[in-house]
Structures are given as C-alpha cells and as structure tokens.
Specification:
By secondary structure, the protein is an alpha+beta fold. The protein has four domains: 89 residues, Uridine Diphospho-n-acetylenolpyruvylglucosamine Reductase, domain 2, CATH 3.30.43; 119 residues, Uridine Diphospho-n-acetylenolpyruvylglucosamine Reductase, domain 3, CATH 3.30.465.10; 113 residues, Alpha-Beta Plaits (2-Layer Sandwich); 87 residues, Alpha-Beta Plaits. It is 36% helix and 21% strand. It has 16 helices and 19 strands. Strands 12, 13, 14, 15, 16, 17, 18 and 19 form an eight-stranded antiparallel sheet that branches. It comes from Noviherbaspirillum sedimenti.
C-alpha cells in the first residue's frame, strides 16, 4: 500500500495522511466506546476535489473507505472494522459555510460543518436552522444527512431529509455530482438527493448541502407537565396541536425512571415537582407573533389540561434560564444512563397513535422475560420516536446483563414490528443493526436496496459492512 499512501499524500498533503497509532486513535473507536477498529490510514481532505481524488485512488487500489464526520453515531456506522484494510475519510476540514441566501431562505454548508456552527450562522443572518440534537456541538452536517438525523424539532420542521434541498456528492467512481440547487420544486427525474440522504455513506460521500432556513421565532416558551400514563400524554399532544397548531415545536416524553437517574447522577439539576409522577412531557411553543401571545397559548392549553385532570401538575418556564433547566433534565438522560452502567438501547418508531399501547405491552413482556429490569423510556413523542432503553436489574453485573442483549432486542424489536414500527428511527443501521433488519424487512425491499448498492458501488468500497 506504499504507492496508495504516497498518492494520498500528494492529493491532500502529507500532514493530512495520518498513519501513526496515536494520531488515528480518536477516529477508530465509536462514540459509546464499544468497538475499536483498525485502519490503513486516516485521510483528511480539505475540499470536494480532494475527496474525489482520494476516492479515485481507493478505486484504483481497491481500498475500502469509511466516511466520518464528528464520529458521534450510535450504530457503529462511522468506524472501520478490525481488518485494517480500510481508510477512514475524515471530513472535518470541509467546514466552510459557503453562502447564505436570506431571500431564498437557504444556507450552503460543507459536510464537515459542526451543526452548532450552522445554527449560529443562520442566527447571525436572523434566520433559524431548526435541526437540534444533544450532540450538536460536535456532530457534523454530513453525518446528520448521512444518517437522516431527527432530534427535538421534527414535529414542526421534519428530519434532516426534509431540511435539505440539494447536495454535492462524490460518487463511488470519484466524480463530483453538483446538485446544490436551492429549489423547492424540481420535477426532472429520480430524486438523487433523497437517495444519498440516509445512506450512511454506502453509496457516495456528501461533501456539501443546501439547507432550509426559517424565520427566527419571536418567542420560545417551555413547560413541563406531569401525567399518569403515556396514553394521557397522547391526549395532551392532540389537545396542544389542536389549540396551537404549528406553534408546537417540541413534545418530549420522559418516564419517572429517567428523571430519577438524572437527579441521582446530576444532583445540581433541580427537581421540577415536589413529588414523583409516572410520566412527564416537556413541550415547547415557538411563536412568530410575540411572547405575550405564546404565553397566552401555553397557559391556556396547560390550564385546560389541569382543569380537566388530564395533567396532574405543570411548571411553565418564566425565563430563558428556567427553560434551559427544564431542557437539561431531558438532555442529561443519556449521560445519566451511562453513569448508572451499561444499558441496552433501542431507537424505535411506532405510529404516534399506538405509542401508549406499545409501551404498556412491551413493558409487560420485558417484565415477564427479565424480572426487575429497569425501563428507561424517553423520546420524541410528537413524531413517534422513542429511545426505549433497558437497564440491568439492581445488583446484576453489566456483563451478565449484556450477555442477554440479543434476547432483549428480540422482545423489543418483535413488539415494534407487531405495532407497525421501525427498529431504527433516527440513528440508522450502521454495522450494529445490519443483520437485525433482515428479520423485519421483506426480501423484495432488501433486494431493491442491494440492487441500488450494486449499481452505484459495484466494488463495495463505500463504507462496506454497513447498512446493507
């Protein structure tokens, strides 16, 4: 591989071809530190042309490549296997905001742009880029699009696919497809943009994107409501949507187990209520009129829910600081779980109307199969996406619990399937769920996906072993 690496050095500069173990280490281990792979090198191109040059070299020498952004994925999609045959293609040097068009409400960002930097660039132009994730300070736009990321605002604005109008992509042949068209209507054939979004780098490499912007809301207000059940949360969702319409931008469900873990491991975060409740909903309104109008809407809908007995208690944030504090309760759940010990995570989606029945049924099935296991259920109720996680019973070692991961997954995923859902809502399949998905998709659907992969990447060099 000496000639290949020399070619890479000539294409991107010797300083951006990392081969020393210490230099590569941070690129080889996944975000949750479950897997460490090996690589021939980590290559850091600085432009789309350099990405294309590296892909052509990979094609010439038959070297697999693993595209990587912020390496914040949760399904082993952005790290190599242990063979050491592949390179990691790090896109973090592609970090320019190329342009902002406030009349067209679009922003062109390169794939290595940190999500938070894109949000800030939009804000500086008095616009909103609404994609919002817990990892927004380190995840990148390319990764967001490759995994079709969701986040907390999908209810109002949609997921990453719906926030993208056009792409620039380096194909598996090393050609650059310039699809950076900021058009909301373009009916001229197959939608290649949607093909590459969510493909996890298995068909080509996204190098830049045209992203949708929105007017910045004049007010954002947050409330936390305490309820008796997920079914009550669904009733509240219907009520808020009927009264507030598109002003409802966030609707997050959290069980009491979630808040207990947060309070245990982050005691500085204040308990919102004087006593525990079975379920909580964190909801946010964004208003284009005024803060007074937003507060009137929020107070009205929460007041009606309290009066009817649908909600047992509620807290309305009176300031930005209080709002941030309520959101921190939600955003610290994953970190609290990690501090508590190993857990078995599920990123699932079911039709919104069936979420209550899914939780009740699956809770019961798990309690029967794994007595005393702890169910840490939270997520984006407004769009049907739950992080339905299972923690070990008190006193059981992580190793003993994780040894039963396949059994736990079978109970959860089979239940998801029965309720008409998906075993991956926003994290993707990566290497972690690549085999699992074969149990739930039809041979016709799998065959179509494999045909697309064969047509666009016949040498199977683009992120092999992932997704399909």
């Amino acid at each position: 591989m000496t000639a290949f690496l020399e070619g890479c050095r000539a294409a991107v500069g010797a300083a951006h071809v990392l081969t020393a173990a210490a230099d590569m280490a941070g690129h080889l281990t996944d975000h949750r530190r479950r897997h460490t792979g090996a690589a021939l090198a980590v290559i850091q191109p600085g432009s789309s042309a350099e990405v294309a040059a590296i892909v052509r070299l990979c094609r010439q020498y038959r070297v697999p490549l693993v595209p990587q952004g912020g390496n914040t994925g949760l399904v082993l999609g952005s790290v190599p296997d242990t063979s050491g045959a592949a390179i990691v293609l790090s896109l973090t040097r592609l970090h320019r905001i190329r342009s902002i068009d406030v009349v067209n409400d679009t922003l062109v960002a390169e794939a290595g742009c940190i999500l938070k930097n894109v949000q800030d660039a939009a804000s500086a132009a008095n616009r909103l880029f609404p994609l919002s994730l817990a990892s927004e300070g380190s995840c990148t736009i390319g990764g967001n699009l490759s995994s079709n990321a969701g986040g907390t605002a999908v209810l109002r604005y949609g997921n990453a696919r719906e926030l993208c109008l056009g792409l620039e992509v380096v194909t598996a042949e090393g050609e650059i497809w310039d699809g950076l068209r900021g058009l909301r209507k373009d009916n001229t054939g197959y939608d290649l943009r949607d093909l590459y979004i969510g493909a996890e780098g298995t068909l080509g490499i996204i190098t830049a994107a045209v992203l949708k912007l929105y007017p910045r809301p004049r007010a954002q207000l947050t409330a936390l409501a305490a309820l008796r059940s997920p079914a009550a949360a669904l009733e509240l969702l219907a009520s808020v949507r009927e009264r507030c319409g598109d002003a409802l931008t966030g609707f997050e469900l959290m069980s009491d187990v979630c808040l207990q873990l947060v309070r245990k491991h982050f005691p500085a975060l204040r308990a919102p209520f004087g006593k525990a409740h079975p379920q909580y909903v964190l909801l946010e309104l964004s208003d284009q009129e005024s803060e007074a109008h937003a507060r009137q809407l929020l107070e009205g809908v929460i007041g009606a829910a309290l009066e009817s007995g649908l909600v047992d208690d509620a807290v309305l944030a009176a300031s930005l600081g209080q709002s941030a504090g309520l959101w921190q309760l939600r955003e610290h759940i994953s970190a609290a779980q990690a501090a508590e010990g190993k857990n078995i995570k599920h990123d699932i989606a079911v039709p919104i109307s069936r979420i209550g029945a899914f939780i009740d049924t699956t809770d019961r099935l798990l309690a029967q199969a794994f007595p005393a296991c702890r169910l840490v259920c939270f997520g984006h109720l407004g769009d049907g996406n739950l992080h339905y996680n299972v923690s070990a019973p008190a006193g059981m070692s992580d190793e003993d619990f994780l040894a039963r991961q396949a059994e736990v997954n079978r109970v959860v995923h089979d239940s998801v399937h029965r309720f008409g859902g998906s075993i991956s809502a926003e994290h993707g399949l990566g290497a972690l769920k690549r085999q699992e998905i074969l149990r739930y998709k039809s041979p016709v659907e799998i065959g179509l996906q494999r045909a697309i992969k064969q047509a666009l990447d016949p040498l199977n060099l683009m992120n092999p072993g992932k997704l399909i």
